[in-house]
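TL;DR need structure tokens for one chain.
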Amino acid sequence: MAKKISTREVAINNYQSIIVGLLVFLIGLGVSYKLVTNQLNKVKQQEAAMTQQQEQAKVHTVVAGETLWSIAEKEIGSGYNAPDIAKANNISNPNNIEVGAKLTIPHVSPIMEQNGSVTSVSTTQVTLNEAKYTIKTGDTLWDISVRAYGDGYRWPEIAKTNKIANPDLIYAGSILTLPGK
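>> reply
TL;DR here they are.
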């Protein structure tokens, strides 16, 4: 004989089914919310990383008449940061940049002149010991700075002392005063 189910038992079973269904729905909703927020956080982190890379990896295309000094003034705010651009782009001769070249501009603070001196570190042996130097064909301020101080990054001191507005324009036979010699 089959057991008769009362309407009350049917109602209780229906409520239990509804409650279980609601619990399953709420758990699913919570899991979905967590997955969506995790995905949004990942996207935000990726966007932040891309923004940081773009800020750090600014690129400048060289146009006619530009020097590392003028590019540093334009892009960083100080010509004294020209060596930073040279270093970031592995430029051994800063007087030799080509029109159309794409230079990475490093994310650095502008170097401001401090009582006419630039901090430096010696990188090679000093071969010029005189206070004056006569420019020879093919010389650059970088090369002269390397020979005079053992550090090519001190070329702005020579340019400033000799009132050289464009460090790319130096002429054979001209006599330079080498500061600090």
